[in-house]
Write a structure and sequence with these properties.
By secondary structure, the chain is of the alpha+beta class. The chain has three helices and eleven strands. It is 22% helix and 27% strand. It starts with a helix and ends in a 13-residue tail after the last helix.
Amino acid sequence: MRITRVLSTTLLAFGLAAAPAAADSTPSASPSEDGSAPTTAGTSFRTATEVDQGQTATASGSAGDYLYWSFPADAGQRPTVTAKVKLPEEHAGQTWQVDVYDGLRRRQACQYGAQTRTAASGTASLELACVLRTVRAWSEPWADDPLPGTYYVRLTALGLKTADLGLPVGAELRVGSKDMGGAAAVDGSLAEPLVPGIAVKSSAEDEGEDGDGDDSSASAVLSSIEPDDGWSSGWWTDRWVWTGIGGVLAALAGIGGYALTRGPGRPRQVPPGA
């Protein structure tokens, strides 16, 4: 009975500790309410408009333009990119596509989602979606796995007819993510996230500590976005909790096995030397 009580108390304690870890698997926060969401889009990787996860960015452009945005994604997250294109009242059939690239500008495949869709003539709008693979904290150099850092979104129309080139269009982009928890944890991590200008920033910080640097080098940093809790904030996962529970259960099993196999011991009425 004593072992049972100890086991129940231990499991209850670890269950309470696991609750925050389980809560981390919920989707990201709701859109920003402070009106700071971007209203423009870039035209290249270098001019991509920065968007935080949870924001809904908007932009106006012309059919045939390339629209670029960028957002941060950290280890353990599974980003979801959704885009809505508002088409002019009169247009021919149009095919639109959304592509996502990582910090090394490698095109990332979508696990699922309507990445490419065709709008029939007269259609007012269409929606696209791309659910990426889970971002890994570390990967082999030859692998194409998503890694922590900046991700780029490109929205464009494919094979437009001449009559549709230059027609005004509107676009809405939203980026969210789901924390996959300990199931996506790996051994190892990157020295720095794949963010444009991170090497320049690190170099400037090192020179500043030595007193040999100046503030002008900080202006060379090309990206200022990062997760709300900082990079690699997901070092704590529910894998630690379940590993601890397994260790406690193994110890209790050893104690219980010893208690069952050692026997009742020497009876009181039998002298030690007998």
